[in-house]
Design brief:
elongated, GTP Cyclohydrolase I, domain 2, alpha+beta, two-stranded antiparallel ribbon, GTP Cyclohydrolase I, Chain A, domain 1, 2 domains, single chain
């Protein structure tokens, strides 16, 4: 399993994040001292720390030895993994479901580890395309399967609340590695099992 590079966000020396949010509120024409906003900067700072906690996690910590030798060569799928992430372009949320499949070679990973891997990468400033690829590469790195397929379906607030304002538009991204890239039959089986038409 290759070492997962974790980007640590250094806490600034001096003013807190909350103090800067007060300045932002003023710039937007608000009064940060009014009752409804008085503690908003601290709440926002805590919320962002939670929503970006994936920077403090690594693949090794998540997997934590939950890899098992087994004679299994049939497809393993964990589907409909709900996730929430933050678009790095607008700092607005995007959310949806990720489906993860792999073809074991001689090892499997604990099933709960796959959603934990998704959460680790989702809890960062992200692009959906990168998130999909990172999840696939993490599974590949952890157990060296014959192939990995990941598909993400999401809605983006940067498209729903602003810009084109299309509330029902969705984005689908996929990453296919190994046998999933090489074999149309394997891809089709994966897509059929997660409920997508092939």
């Amino acid at each position: 399993m290759k070492n997962d590079a974790v980007v640590k966000v250094l806490q600034p020396q001096g003013p807190s994040v909350a103090s800067h949010i007060r300045d932002v509120l003023r710039m937007l024409g608000e009064d940060p001292q009014r009752e409804g906003l008085r503690h908003t900067p601290e709440r926002w700072e805590k919320a962002m720390q939670f929503l970006t906690r994936g920077y403090e996690e690594s693949l090794e910590q998540i997997v934590n030895g939950a890899i098992f030798s087994v004679k299994c060569d049939e497809m393993v799928i964990v589907k409909d993994i709900e996730f929430f992430s933050m678009c790095e372009h607008h700092l607005l949320p995007f959310f949806g479901k990720i489906h993860v499949a792999y073809l074991p070679k001689d090892k499997v990973i604990g099933l709960s580890k796959i959603p934990r891997i998704v959460n680790m990468y989702a809890r960062r400033m992200q692009l959906q395309e990168r998130l999909t690829q990172q999840v696939a590469e993490a599974v590949e790195s952890a157990i060296s399967p014959r192939g990995v397929g990941v598909m993400a379906e999401a809605r983006h607030f940067c498209m729903m609340m602003r810009g084109v304002e299309k509330q029902h538009s969705g984005t689908i991204t996929s990453t296919m590695l190994g046998a999933f890239r090489a074999s149309k039959a394997t891809r089709d089986e994966f897509l059929a099992l997660v409920g997508r038409h092939v």
